[in-house]
């Protein structure tokens, strides 16, 4: 497969590649005899070294550190995925319980939420037959290596479907967050998504700011390991130092300040002065001299705090993850293309909509959700953080007006720093592209025989189902590779229960791309390399391996290649002996080809080996530093996992006590179950059945459509039973038959969610019910089962983003 085909599969324009040695190495190479020699080795040198070292077993400090780093990155990727799933479960339970509270009815959570509270069993194994494994392996290789398909799909799905798809895309399909090939493929997908977003959005002000599947994608991307690492290193210390001052009140909203002021006066004096009425407008509060005197020093201090945050962020430019900077670069490029007359301020506001609104400010407002703080911020620090986030967002947006009138008082902060922030936002975009390195990574991938994807059955089935739903938009042509694969794999299987949702290793390969059997041959044919070029690179690579494997040789200077080869060939280690003999023969072949010269001690190769070793020495320090940084990130992610699990336990406790309370109302005293205890409540008595005739339900408008023949309808009736609170069984009967023709289980919160989502009808196979009217019937029929009083502690369980901050964007 040639490089044009590789790049074309990404939808990437073919870059102009320099064939000069200086393009890759930054230096001119000469032969030992003094004749200038233009090497054809450019960036493929690094590629070949990567490939050559895949099967090398070198046990030095660097190798051990690199192994530790790989393991750490793998654990971070896996843990990030677990956290994403947990966060989705928490949001799900939060919304379900809220719906139930609104309806003032109780729900026994056992059946409905059990799947969100139990542990899945992610055992690995092959649960698909060989044919399905091959079909899905082809399909997911195509999706991974041609990101445009996923990019289109992410734009087509609804907000209710996007989270499950993002789990597969961000944490499975491109789940190796620190592996360049998958990261770069993911970024090309973002390029396609953003390009389409700019093309279809007509309102400049809503670009990247509205809550869409695309904005959810961008937020999810920032929650991966590199983004969390940056947030912790840059924001954690600053936020922790602020929240230590629990009593520091930075409120500047005049109305709130006024109310706090009169409350304090009343507490101190026992009465309220006549000139300070209890209820005033915001304008009256803002005009009050005492309020103004309170606010003035707060504005000064708030500006100082915001400036300290801003300075920390600006000084962190080099720490910003490459992927986030590259996305900023695409936003700048797309803004210029879509709006040729856009000013620098407009361009920077668009970059800021991503960098601040989607990335930094959510962590500033709710640092405990990002595990940036040890304790939940108190009331006053929380408000200060919210104001800081508003100031930073206003600075990035540079609005001509403030959404809240009192924020105008902070306009001097915006005016003083707007050029400074513009410079930072534009500097974020100054990163190189990765297309050539992606091409090289694809060579490596095509030469691997064990390219696999760790994926669950439900991730496969859900992605399959979404692809089929949007097949015509994704693959309009019958000759499209995607359409061919979807037609072959057939209909999507249904989702399996959580306990059966096994993880499998899915081998990835392509029907249309020939695997590279011999990397050296592929490099020579595609990059105009000769056999001598390959031989030279392999010889140098072996010498580096030998020096790393023999500590006493590594300490000897100057480097003597002949001595190193002879020492290896005469050791007691069979592997070193084999390599020593091989490299001696390779040196001889290179000399005969006049590539190297023994008379000058193989000067050219000796210099390059020395430079490579110097690079590896520096690399060891870099790797150790990265390990130190990522260990902190891994701990943060694990802490966040524990935090989410504790939230689920609180939900579970709340729901269990709801059940117990409703049990008291219906069957007498029942003992309270504590968190972590098994459910020992007595079995509840079912309510019903209540009988309703077909004619009655039709007359009341509950049945809206029917396939039951007219002459049969008088003999049809329905029995509705509530086996446990919040769960209903509707059974369709035919007069004269003992058994029901069919039964349907309904959950109260399912109906509430359908009503909230404006779903009109409920399909019962033979008939369709009006959702709102069947809900009214159930409420009326089972009204005696009242919702218990909701504890004030419920508010503490809610994990919704800070509503106040939502006005920032």
Automatic annotation (TrEMBL):
Q: Which CDD domains match?
A: RasGAP_GAPA
Q: Which GO terms describe its cellular component?
A: cell cortex
What keywords were assigned to this record?
Answer: Coiled coil
Q: Which residues form a coiled coil?
A: 55-82
For this protein, the record's SMART domains field holds: RasGAP (SM00323)
Outline the extent of the Ras-GAP domain.
181-397
Q: By what name is this protein known?
A: 4437_t:CDS:1
Q: Which organism is it from?
A: Paraglomus occultum
């Amino acid at each position: 497969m040639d490089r044009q085909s590789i790049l074309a599969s990404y939808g990437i324009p073919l870059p102009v590649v320099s064939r000069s040695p200086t393009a890759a190495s930054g230096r001119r190479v000469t032969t030992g005899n003094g004749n200038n020699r233009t090497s054809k080795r450019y960036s493929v040198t690094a590629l070949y070294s990567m490939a050559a070292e895949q099967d090398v077993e070198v046990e030095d400090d660097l190798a051990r550190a690199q192994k530790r780093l790989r393991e750490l990155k793998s654990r971070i990727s896996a843990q990030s995925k677990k956290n994403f799933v947990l966060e989705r479960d928490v949001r799900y339970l939060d919304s379900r319980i809220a719906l139930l509270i609104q309806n003032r009815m109780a729900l026994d959570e056992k059946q409905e939420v059990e799947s969100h509270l139990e542990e899945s069993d992610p055992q690995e194994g092959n649960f698909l037959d060989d044919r399905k494994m091959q079909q899905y392996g082809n399909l997911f290789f195509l999706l991974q290596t041609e990101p445009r398909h996923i990019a289109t799909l992410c734009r087509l799905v609804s907000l209710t479907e996007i989270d499950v798809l993002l789990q597969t895309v961000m944490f499975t399909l491109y789940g190796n967050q620190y592996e360049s090939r998958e990261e770069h493929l993911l970024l090309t997908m973002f390029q396609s998504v953003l390009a389409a977003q700019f093309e279809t959005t007509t309102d400049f002000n809503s670009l990247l700011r509205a809550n869409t599947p695309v904005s959810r994608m961008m937020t999810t991307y920032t929650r991966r390991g590199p983004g969390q690492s940056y947030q912790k290193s840059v924001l954690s210390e600053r936020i922790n130092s602020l929240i230590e001052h629990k009593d520091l009140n930075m409120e500047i909203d005049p109305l709130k300040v006024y109310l706090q002021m009169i409350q304090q006066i009343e507490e101190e004096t026992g009465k309220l002065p006549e000139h300070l009425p209890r209820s005033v407008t915001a304008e009256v509060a803002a005009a009050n001299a005492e309020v103004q005197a309170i606010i003035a020093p707060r504005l000064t201090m708030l500006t100082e705090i915001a400036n300290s945050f801003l300075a920390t962020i600006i000084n962190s430019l080099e720490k910003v993850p490459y992927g986030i900077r590259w996305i900023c670069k695409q936003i700048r490029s797309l803004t210029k293309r879509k709006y040729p007359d856009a000013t620098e301020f407009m361009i920077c506001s668009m970059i800021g909509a991503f960098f601040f609104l989607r990335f930094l400010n959510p962590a500033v407002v709710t640092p405990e959700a990002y595990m940036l703080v040890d304790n939940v911020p108190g009331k006053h620090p929380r408000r200060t953080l919210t104001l800081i986030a508003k100031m930073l967002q206003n600075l990035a947006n540079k609005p001509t007006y403030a959404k809240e009138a009192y924020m105008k008082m902070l306009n001097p902060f915006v005016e003083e720093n707007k050029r400074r922030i513009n410079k930072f936002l534009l500097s974020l975009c100054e990163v190189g592209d990765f297309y050539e390195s992606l091409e090289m990574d694809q060579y490596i991938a095509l030469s691997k025989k064990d390219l696999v994807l760790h994926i669950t059955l439900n991730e496969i089935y859900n992605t399959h189902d979404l692809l089929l739903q949007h097949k015509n938009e994704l693959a309009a042509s019958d000759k499209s590779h995607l359409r061919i694969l979807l037609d072959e794999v057939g209909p999507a299987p249904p989702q399996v229960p959580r306990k059966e949702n096994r993880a499998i290793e899915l081998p990835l390969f392509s029907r249309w791309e020939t695997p590279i059997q011999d990397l050296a041959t592929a490099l020579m044919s595609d990059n105009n390399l000769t056999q001598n070029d390959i031989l030279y690179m392999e010889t140098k690579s072996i010498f580096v391996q030998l020096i790393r494997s023999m500590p006493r040789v590594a300490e000897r200077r100057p480097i003597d290649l002949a001595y190193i080869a002879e020492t290896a060939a005469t050791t007691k280690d069979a592997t070193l002996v084999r390599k020593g003999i091989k490299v001696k023969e390779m040196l001889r072949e290179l000399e005969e080809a006049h590539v190297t010269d023994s008379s000058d001690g193989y000067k050219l190769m000796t210099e390059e080996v020395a430079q490579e070793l110097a690079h590896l020495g520096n690399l060891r320090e870099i790797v150790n530093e990265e390990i130190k940084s990522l260990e902190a990130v891994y701990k943060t992610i694990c802490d966040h996992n524990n935090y989410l699990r504790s939230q689920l336990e609180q939900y579970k406790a709340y729901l269990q006590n709801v059940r117990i309370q409703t049990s008291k109302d219906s069957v007498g005293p029942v003992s309270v179950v504590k968190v972590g205890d098994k459910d020992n409540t007595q079995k509840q008595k079912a309510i019903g059945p209540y009988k309703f005739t077909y004619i009655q339900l039709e007359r009341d408008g509950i049945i809206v459509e029917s396939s039951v023949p007219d002459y049969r309808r008088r003999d049809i009736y329905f029995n509705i039973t509530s086996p446990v609170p919040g769960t209903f069984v509707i059974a369709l009967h035919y007069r004269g038959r003992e058994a029901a023709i069919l039964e349907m289980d309904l959950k109260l919160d399912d109906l509430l969610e359908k009503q909230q989502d404006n779903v009109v009808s409920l399909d019962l196979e033979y008939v369709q019910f009006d959702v709102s009217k069947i809900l009214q019937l159930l409420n009326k029929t089972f009204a005696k089962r009242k919702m218990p009083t909701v504890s004030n502690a419920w508010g503490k369980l809610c994990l919704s983003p800070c509503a106040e901050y939502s006005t920032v964007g």
